[in-house]
Amino acid sequence: MSFQEKYLCGESMDMYKASQHHTEKTHSQGLHFYDDLQIIEHEDEPLNRAERLKAVEKPLLAWYHSRARSLPWRDDPKPYRVWISEIMLQQTRVEAVKPYFERFMAAFPDIKALAEADDDYLMKMWEGLGYYNRARNLKAAAIMVMEEFCGQIPAEKEELLKLPGIGSYTAGAISSIAYGVPNPAVDGNVLRVLSRLWGDTSDIKKASVKAVMEQEIAEVMPENAASSYNQGLIEIGALVCIPGGEPKCSECPLASLCITKKRGLWKEIPVRSAPKPRRMEEKTVFLIEWNEKAAIHKRPPKGLLASLYELPNTEGHLTADEAVWQVKKWICDKMQTGQADQGGCAAITAHMKALQVVAEPIGVAKHVFSHVQWEMVGYRVKILCENNGNTEELLENISENEHFFMVDKTALKEEYSVPSAFGAYIRLLG
């Protein structure tokens, strides 16, 4: 006796058999087999973990084929498009990704274009998505694909894992969705869905828990429906077994199999260990304006927000007078390095005294990164004029490796990638 014959009976068995013959006509009539396709579990013969996961297949696939959202990368699942979408979807909502995906595809339509991308332009096209290392890894991986895989994204999980920025989940997603290879793709959605299915109280943040789940899925995943199977589990986690709220169990094709539903434990499952507290950092941010230009600074090539452009800032919360002093000091530093031969320290002191700088408070803001939170105070700083010296020439010739340099305000908005951490202040530019 087959698994289905053992646990399905009567009308349920009829529905199971009917589901094997899904047709376009049925879909057009608005009928959905999964609505009635529920596995009947006998109380005296409970399913073990493997059997419960095996029982998921048919209702899951029926539900996915009738309920899946239309998404640009799903409707045209070429390897390159799948890869870009999966990287973008890390830490980012689907609806937020859609416009960025289309813009990115227009800018970099293929692997070659991405591998040859100008770094600043690449960052500008990624602007708003955050976690900018993802974009840097995309380019590095594209270069590697061009050099080592003849411009073709590999289908094998082992080869995909060699590419920068690709881990177990992303490799499984690309290989299964783009190539149909039966590799698990276990993300946060899948961890939540299957933890609830099994009533599993293991900590889903542990790598060992994810590894076990991947192995269990690999043992039952249908070879001819790997894409739909993986995407179905992800989709249920996104739309039905949702994070941060009560799951929509009445809409779930796996409801009759779900131990968490039977026991009413959705608030307790999945189990996650408490995150480490974020480090708090105080910063003062300067919106420096002069002659229809604004000041920006390029961050170091390594570390947080590496190589991106930012508004000038310093550690701690400064008063308005301290903010004025800080800007003058930055300019003085430039004069010391670039104009020391024009009168020495005395000339520099004279320039500093003549320099007119005004600082106006423009409010507080905060930005939360994964491991650190910035608590910011901001000042609009205007460099007005200078009665003795050549400040104008000085400001015109400040380079990127200085404390700040001046750019046209329109260019700042259109050409330079400034992280959203500074968004509250960038919006105040005239």
Plain-language structure description:
- The structure is a single chain.
- This protein has 430 residues and is of the alpha+beta class.
- The chain has two domains: 72-263, Hypothetical protein, domain 2 (Endonuclease III, domain 1); 279-426, Nucleoside Triphosphate Pyrophosphohydrolase, CATH 3.90.79.10.
- The chain has 21 helices and seven strands.
- The protein has helices at residues 3-7, 10-19, 24-28, 49-67, 72-75, 79-89, 94-107, 111-115, 119-126, 133-148, 157-160, 168-179, 188-198, 207-220, 226-239, 259-263, 320-338, 344-354, 391-396, 409-415, 423-426, and strands at residues 279-290, 293-298, 309-310, 313-315, 355-368, 372-386, 405-408.
- A hairpin with a 3-residue loop joins strand 5 and strand 6.
- It is elongated, with a radius of gyration of 28 Å.
CATH architectural type of the largest domain: Orthogonal Bundle
Structural shape? elongated
- Please compute the radius of gyration using only Cα atoms: 28 Å
Q: How many beta-strand elements?
A: 7
Poorly predicted parts: 1-31, 338-344
The CATH superfamily of the largest domain bears the name Hypothetical protein, domain 2
